[in-house]
Fold this sequence. Notes:
The complex is a heterodimer of chains A (366) and B (264). Chain A contains 6 helices and 28 strands. Chain A is mainly β and 366 residues long. Chain A has 2 domains: 23-112, Immunoglobulin-like (Sandwich), CATH 2.60.40; 121-365, BT2081, beta-jelly-roll domain (Jelly Rolls, Sandwich), CATH 2.60.120.890. In chain A, strands 7, 11, 12, 19, 25 and 28 form a 6-stranded antiparallel sheet that branches. In chain A, strands 15, 18, 22, 24 and 26 form a 5-stranded antiparallel sheet that branches. Chain A is globular, with a radius of gyration of 23 Å. The mean pLDDT of chain A is 91. The mean pLDDT of chain B is 85. Chain B has 2 helices and 10 strands; from the N terminus they run ααββββββββββ. Chain B has a single domain (3-263), classed as Porin. Chain B is mainly beta and 264 residues long. Chain B has helices at residues 3-25, 27-38; strands at 41-55, 63-70, 75-84, 91-118, 124-153, 156-183, 190-202, 210-221, 226-235, 252-263. The chains are: A mainly beta (366), B mainly beta (264). The A-B interface holds A 1, 4-5, 8-9, 11-16, 18-22, 42-43, 97, 101-104, 152, 156-160, 188-190, 192-195, 210-216 and B 51, 53, 55, 58-66, 68-71, 111-112, 117, 119-125, 128, 180, 182-183, 185-187, 189-195, 197-201.
Amino acid sequence: MIAASFILTACIREEAPNAEADILSCTFQEDVLAYPVNVDLPYDYTLEAYPIYIAVREGVDLTHLAPRFTLTEGASIEPLSGSIQNLSEPVRYTVTSEDGNWQRVYSVQAYVETLRPIPSKYSFETVNSDAGYDVFTDTDSDGSLTWASGNAGFKMSAGSAGRDAYPTSQADGGVEGKCVKLTTCSTGSLGSLVGMPIAAGNIFFGQFNVRDAMSNPLGATQFGVKCNRKPIKLCGYYKYVPGAQMQEGNTMVDGTDEMDIYAIFYENTDQEGNTVMLDGNIANDDFAHPQMVALARIPDHGSREEWTYFELPFDYARYGKSVDEMKLRTGGYNISVVMSSSIGGASFRGAVGSTLYVDELELVFE
Amino acid sequence: MTEAMIKKFFAFFIILSGCSMLAGAQPWTSRILQKAESAGWEFGLKAGFNIGGCSPLPLPREIREIDSFNPTLAIQLSGEATKWLDPGRVWGVTFGIRLDNKNMTTRAMVKNYSMEIIGGDGNRLKGNWSGHVKTDVRNDYLNFPVLASWKPDERWVVQFGPYLSVLLNGNFSGEVYDGYLREGNPTGDKIVFSDGAVAGYDFSRELRRILWGLQAGCEWAAFRHLRLYTNLTWGMNGIFRPEFSTITFSMYPIYLNLGFGYNF
């Protein structure tokens, strides 16, 4: 048997050149960055490229920047890494794999980091469905925000589903116009193969890292965007119908499903100045975290057949912290609104068919 | 193969060897055998082990390391009839019927290995996998060899020829772990499988039902009735149906058999 292994090992042929063509990092020789560059943003169907946004400090000239990239081993990039570019407008970089067969196009743009406020009102009227599922963007006179959801994860298990069969989608019959519909869905045979038989509908401020969806589903939902105003309350309307049969993983259990709506407000750096991004673990940890500042959470997670108004005050008292004005203005706080059709969805506990509708959401700031 | 099947095979063998013992005692069976023998026929039974694997040839470049290989306990049972064509009994034709298990369990490290997982409900996940793959093969075949037999001296027989295989029972399954999938192609979304995340696959339904191959071997008469034998069976078809494209290379069953034979 060992001899056979040796024979087989002896037959192993020379390694093929790499087929991947990734930008692994983006740095600058000079100290121009406001914070580290994220090179792992999801594909942008409008730009037809993987976006890279470079946030630079005030006073940096956007028209003369020389970003330096590290790439998959053996890959090449055009224009060259380290070449001077005008990044005040998007510049398209093409990375070609070592074997020459594959390319990835990135759209690189720099901007001066100034805080742009997030919207106050969210009515779920605008979606982009190029990815095969709905991606919500809300814009009002204050600003613009694109919601994140776990749809990209669901796409892996059910790529052929129509956009309205995804856990997070737009639906008719809102309080006004359309609304967001969150449904706990079965992930079918492929989801079962990886031990993730259901996907709760979810939507939140932040980012969904599909890379971590299999190994660390709670960490894949990154909650938070910068917020330069102090939130007082979260209001809106919802309807909720729990699904018929509760399950925990692949096991059917007794009980009735529950939904969740909450908002967290937290400091985005720790004592040592490291960036802090809260994720799906926060609800499991009962919202206890050294950087938490305030929590607004719906008290009743049960069913509502008709549109029901809710008004959730941010509870600052629980964490006993005051909001620092200076820190607020310089972007030291993050906020995230998080909604899910199954409260235990991140741990694959819920009932297929549980449906939460939400509309006319409003964040009230001080 | 299941334990029940192994038991069945052994039962089959014991009954046949029982028959052979009786052959000496029962005048009518021994008369038939004697008659057949004088017409140039010879009968035998064989039992042995199968050691080998289902392997692409040559190994594709996607395979970077074989972490482990286990041929498992795979057995082979056969009955053979040889018709000697010349009075000196040097050349003959052998017809056989052989049941065998072609098994293996391997763990390998692959890089940029094209794969597609097709769920029972038709959902598909296609992409390029870099990481570890475990493969379990448990196939039972009924084979019909037709061989040229050459007896250069009293103790040795050399055989060569084709065989036809019918898949009775097939399992080709496994899992991928500790690595990442690039969805669709090598530039697609990267999905990391670590911390115990695994995805299973099962291609049992994609196995080819009828295959053929070539075999070559020899046997040595240790005693008057007892033989030692070895032969190499080399599949000429890939083990999967030709329409199956998930695994981009063909895998050929190549097994070495070692065992004992009883000649009447």
